[in-house]
């Protein structure tokens, strides 16, 4: 399989000059009022659990060994001592449940969490969750000198921090501050879900091939968080998308319409993708191939992924970033030899580690588009986490996210903690 190592990040994705221009125009537009369904989801005041000595009381979903979430997760209570130096005490506001979080608990994700006794247990435990937004409750002088202050919102710099918890102790090196401008008009859920799915879509659309306006991208898992982000960013950048969803008994047409409403040009099921006549249909959508399909984004694998690759124009790029079907990716040799299709992998965690400044800029750009009403929220299932919420309820909610055909991504939304 041909592969390409990720090149050093350019200042912007590899969009054509005309697309770049339209992006600049977008940036200059006046701000639009928010039109999101949960735009009012703002953080709740903290229910103070601070001892006389300034210790913060915290709860976290933790595990001491790998396994299925329902078998290994438990709710652990501990206290956090007052911060000094570059330490800060965080209170989480919103933390999503992503497929990678589940894989990490199962022990099959390459990024391993830190198992530690620092939370007051005899045996080492790890806190689950990789993404989220938190506010700074208290901080040491060195952290203040680095430009942080009480009330700032921060997101995680990389994976493995442990975000399914009410509070945490972090160093300034663990987090990225969302400046006042970046945060303005943004809900906790939007901030807490911006750094993985939208960033992944953003980089994959821009970093592998320079696309001209009017050219096509094809993707599977189109109703996932990444897929929905890709649809919207592609639309913003003047690209057209063919979107593959899994065939389903119920609400297939409603889902297709929903994706069209956020900017998809074509939505088909994986069964339709593999049916006879798909090449003719693709030729019709792309004006007989004059508007080539030059990029494929794959998070599914198996036969539907191979079928997707067959629709690519010669010399195109096929980026794999997930493996939801747990099937291998099979590539006919002819695609490499005669069509010169370039196959790549993408992992946003590694990309962010290599390009921390670019990650910050990407996040800020997506938040900017969100603020302008040009990047809409994916559907969410909010899971309320109050101080009194029982561990079983939270673990049950995590278990629920393992099922397919869901209405939205599960997000812990922290209330009065
Ligand atoms: N490489 C990276 O840097 C990176 C970053 C972010 C995400 N990802 C990966 O991208 C994928 C999507 O993540 P997400 O957070 O966007 O997902 P999500 O919003 O939680 O949605 C899950 C998606 O997976 C689909 N799905 C579930 N089970 C499936 C199966 N057995 N076969 C095919 N599709 C299935 C769902 O389709 P239905 O509605 O039909 O169930 C849905 O589209 C995951 O594999 C994730 O690990 C990778």
Can you walk me through this structure?
The chain has 417 residues and is of the alpha/beta class. The protein has 2 domains: 17-30 and 195-350, Rossmann fold; 56-193 and 379-414, Medium-chain alcohol dehydrogenases, catalytic domain (Quinone Oxidoreductase, Chain A, domain 1), CATH 3.90.180.10. Helix content is 31%, strand content 21%. It is built from 16 helices and 16 strands. Strands 3, 5, 6, 7, 8, 15 and 16 form a 7-stranded mixed sheet that branches. The chain has a 6-stranded parallel sheet with strand order 11-10-9-12-13-14, sandwiched between helices. Helix 8 links the parallel strand 9 (216-219) and strand 10. Helix 14 (348-354) packs across helix 15 (356-371). The longest helix has 16 residues, at 356-371. The radius of gyration is 22 Å and the shape is elongated. The protein starts with 16 loop residues before the first helix and ends with a strand. The site of NADP nicotinamide-adenine-dinucleotide phosphate has 24 residues, from helix 3, helix 7 and helix 8.
Residues in β-strands, percent: 15-25%
Q: How many structural domains in the coordinates?
A: 2
Distance between the termini: 50 Å
For the largest beta-sheet, the strand count, sense and barrel status come to: 7 strands, mixed
Indicate the structural class: alpha/beta
Q: Which small molecules are bound?
A: NADP nicotinamide-adenine-dinucleotide phosphate
Q: Into which percent range does the helicity of residues fall?
A: 25-40%
Low-confidence regions: 1-12, 15-40
Protein name: NAD(P)-binding protein
Organism: Lindgomyces ingoldianus
